[in-house]
Amino acid sequence: MEYTADSIFSQFLWLILFLSASAAVVVARAAASRRRRRLPPGSLGLPLIGETLQLISAYRTENPEPFIDERVAKCGAVFTTHVFGEATVFSADPETNRTVLQNEGRLFESSYPGSISNLLGRHSLLLMRGGHHKRMHSLTAATFANAAVIRDHLLLDVDRLVRLNMDAWTGRVTLMDQAKKITFELTVKQLMSIDPCEWSEDLMKEYMLVIEGFFTVPLPFLSISYTRAIQARRKVAEALATVVRERRKGPRKYDMLGALLDEENSGRVLTDEEIVDFMVALLVAGYETTSTIMTLAVKYLTETPLALAQLKVINETLRMANIISGVFRRTTTDVAVNGYTIPKGMRVFASFRAVHMNYRHFKDARTFNPWRWPSNGSEITNCATNVFTPFGGGPRRCPGAELARVELSVFLHRLVTQFSWIPAEQDKVVFFPTTRTQKRYPIIVQRRSNHEL
């Protein structure tokens, strides 16, 4: 049989129509199922892609709020949508978020898009469940979050590496790139006791490619970014595995890798693959999030001179920037929420950003106002009512939260005491695929003279 261009196109068109019709049937059945099960109201959008394009389009701008605002106004604070290949219940309600966070392992379990899961590895802390997660989360917190550990083992390295990088600053500085360099070097030091070197620079380049693949279609033939990310992840894993093998033969060091290797003393031997996956995820957590907070803190300070004079900025930057905009979970049983039923096996997204940007919880919520956080501790009330959750909550609350605050504080202290600066050009914050400034926030720095310090 001879195939002409017209016949091929015709068959292709019929294939598209068939797939669309099939998808429409699936969506219709899902909608019927939703009505039967009393899912929260909402829209599943287009066949196959749902409302993913609308979400991505909104988050590529400096004002993604309308995506949430429009659906909350129409459907309420808990609504159903379809993003990243799956129907998802989206929560902009603090009490629902609290239910999701506090019922880890009972009503909900961690569940992330395939691109993130594949790139982090099945043994990463983000994807662990049950008793194993509890044990490894506690181990991480003991290594990074203990005040005595931070004071006695981590603070000097934080200050040393911040100063080491800032000593080379002159003229025009791309702040986000510099912040990423600082936090990556800090995280490598804290995980493996390795100081900045050519090896760590090469590792960082591969890491940047891994992160670019987080919110992509997890199919190599459909996404160049995902293909590059998988290849880079393989190189990262090989580099880390070499370090693990060498450390198994050497003396004990006080770092995260040492703590993981010491698990053998508790009767559980972790394989090289488990340790590598674990460290891959911790490198992402320590590097990407903290560096972005550093950059945005400086941006907000620059735009708010009085706050710069008082350095009242950290909580408000965490609220506004929302590096972790929310968490994905999956129900392990039917869950009743706000008069609706979320069926077993359904994905849920608990949005921290939607709560932080809500006028009912914060006055003038979309305005940067560091004075909303008095120094008398009243912000603790907000924490208790689950409207301020920059580090998540429940059993999966970020174990490095306090260390991140310390790193940010040291960075800002060194910056404002050693430099004055002005923006090199206008820049804006966007939120997809991760929170960042569009131009990486270039500034012109000038070192302060001694009498100014």
Return residue spans where pLDDT drops below 50 for at least 5 consecutive residues: 1-25, 376-384
Order of helices and strands: HHHEEHEHHHEHHHHHHHEEEEHHHEEEE
* Main structural class: alpha+beta
- Give Rg in angstroms: 23 Å
Number of helices: 17
Task: Count every beta strand, where a strand is a DSSP E run of 2 or more residues.
Answer: 12
Distance between the termini: 83 Å
In percent terms, what proportion of residues is strand?
5-15%
* Percent in helix: 40-55%
SSE inventory with pairings:
Elements: H1 5-37, H2 52-59, H3 65-75, E1 78-83, E2 86-91, H4 94-102, E3 108-110, H5 114-120, H6 130-144, H7 147-166, E4 171-174, H8 175-192, H9 198-212, H10 224-249, H11 256-261, H12 272-303, H13 305-310, H14 314-321, E5 326-331, E6 335-337, E7 340-342, E8 347-351, H15 352-356, H16 379-384, H17 401-418, E9 419-423, E10 429-430, E11 436-437, E12 442-447
Parallel strand pairs: 2-8
Antiparallel strand pairs: 1-2, 3-5, 4-12, 5-8, 6-7, 9-12, 10-11
Helix pairs in contact: 5-10, 7-8, 7-17, 8-12, 9-10, 10-12, 12-14, 12-17
Identify the notable features of this structure and list them briefly.
alpha+beta; disordered N terminus; single chain; 17 helices; globular; 453 residues
Write up this protein.
The chain has helices at 5-37, 52-59, 65-75, 94-102, 114-120, 130-144, 147-166, 175-192, 198-212, 224-249, 256-261, 272-303, 305-310, 314-321, 352-356, 379-384, 401-418, and strands at 78-83, 86-91, 108-110, 171-174, 326-331, 335-337, 340-342, 347-351, 419-423, 429-430, 436-437, 442-447. It is globular and about 65 Å long. With 453 residues, the chain is of the alpha+beta class. The protein has a five-stranded mixed β-sheet with strand order 1-2-8-5-3. Strands 4-12-9 form a three-stranded antiparallel β-sheet. 54% of the residues lie in helices and 11% in strands. It contains 17 helices and twelve strands. The N and C termini lie far apart (83 Å).
